[in-house]
Amino acid sequence: MHRIGMGTDSHAFADLNSGKRLVLGSVEIPGEIGLVGDSDGDVILHAAFNAIMSALGEQGLGFYFNKNNMDKYGHSTAILEVGLEKMHSLGFRVGNISITLEGKKPRLQKHIPSIQEAMSALLHVLPACVGITITSGDGLTSFGKGEGLYCQAVVLLEKI
């Protein structure tokens, strides 16, 4: 049995003086301004969480986490772990995941291999099972104008 889920997440960039660091797929992107959020703002892990929960017929990030309990889950790997535990308890594993990021900045192509490696370790899949594409958005949305990042994730779950 297979299940497919789709998840999204988006965050605006923090202020220049915020000291927030950009984290994507649990990888810190050096020299880049982070995203606003109650956690580290990792749009990839948030979208992945939402995709996994969607495939399981469950609710998304906002149902499980809010401003009152987010400090307990400050790093998004802890958030994703909650979804992975639910997935495993229902007898599923990740088959593969496809991630698309939209944003005018920063240039992320050189970071794709690091993000794939980190995601493959978190999801217990081969790096080739983590597809990542990036689009600039051509200035058509606030993300395409450089105001933040938007992520879509599609996941295939397999019954163990």
Report on this structure.
Pathway: Isoprenoid biosynthesis; isopentenyl diphosphate biosynthesis via DXP pathway; isopentenyl diphosphate from 1-deoxy-D-xylulose 5-phosphate: step 4/6. This is 2-C-methyl-D-erythritol 2,4-cyclodiphosphate synthase. Keywords: Isoprene biosynthesis, Lyase, Metal-binding. Its cofactor is a divalent metal cation. GO terms for molecular function: 2-C-methyl-D-erythritol 2,4-cyclodiphosphate synthase activity; metal ion binding. The protein has one domain: 60s Ribosomal Protein L30, Chain: A. Helix 1 packs parallel to helix 3. The radius of gyration is 15 Å and the shape is globular. It is α+β, with helices and mostly antiparallel strands and 160 residues long. The strands form 2 sheets. The protein has a 4-stranded mixed sheet. A two-stranded antiparallel sheet has the order 2-3. The protein contains 4 helices and 6 strands, in the order βββαααβαββ.
Lay out the secondary structure.
Layout lengths: L1 E11 L8 E4 L2 E7 L9 H13 L5 H4 L11 H14 L2 E11 L9 H12 L6 E6 L12 E12 L1
Parallel strand pairs: 4-5
Antiparallel strand pairs: 1-6, 2-3, 4-6
